[in-house]
Amino acid sequence: MPAPPRYPSRSTTARRRQGGSGARWRGASRARCPRRRCWPTFLPTGTLLAFETLLPAASGNGTCSAVSVVTLRVLLALCGASCFVFHFTDSFRAPDGKVYYGFVTPRGLSLFRTGLGVEAPREDRFRLGFVDVVHAVMSVLVFAAIALSDYRVSACVLPGHGKEMKEVMESFPLMVAAVCSGLFLMFPNTRYGIGCLAA
Questions:
Q1: Residue 105 bridge partners (DSSP)
Q2: Higher local confidence (pLDDT), 111 or 117
């Protein structure tokens, strides 16, 4: 007699359905990822988080008083400076298994703290180069595009220019994203500094 046909079990069918729906969901999430939420890969991890956290208090929720304008400008300056400076930091893993951070210089890596009994590496990849300056400038541009796209920032920092800012921000973020993405592909980042993954 021929063997009876074998049907997939309920658990197998459920796993297949979950796998298919999970793949579709992951694909949809990548396709729907807003450009603004994909940009933080260009920035130090904590900078954008600190900016978004402090922005409501610094701007007074859009009231644009004299105090809030000054506070907002200080916040923008600090976040922009951190985007620039953090691109000149790097790290390495010492033989003891610990990760040490420092600034890249023309002579090599300069540790933040001295007297730790660890010799800083002097390899070429830890030396300051033109690519580091390019990455720092691009990071500041990306942060500026993200910050100015918020109405609380544009309305307080540039009052009376709402119409002009609206026209500019329709194309400026797209231009910054396209230019910076191309430059990052041409000059990939090899640093593992503050705000990046450990070495």
A1: 108, 127
A2: 111
Q: How wide is the angle at C-alpha 25 spanned by C-alphas 22 and 31, nearest 5°?
A: 145
**Mean pLDDT comparison of 19-23, 31-35, 53-57, highest-scoring range:** 53-57
Q: Which helix (H) or strand (E) holds 108?
A: strand 108-111
Residue 189: how many CB atoms within 10 A of its CB? 17
Whole-angstrom distance, CA of residue 173 vs CA of residue 93 = 37
Say how far apart CA 7 and CA 178 lie, in whole Å: 52
Half-sphere exposure of 103 (CA within 13 A, CB side): 7
Sign for the pseudo-dihedral over CA of 61, 43, 76, 134: negative
Round to whole Å and give the CA distance between 90 and 100: 8
At 30, the amino acid letter reads: R
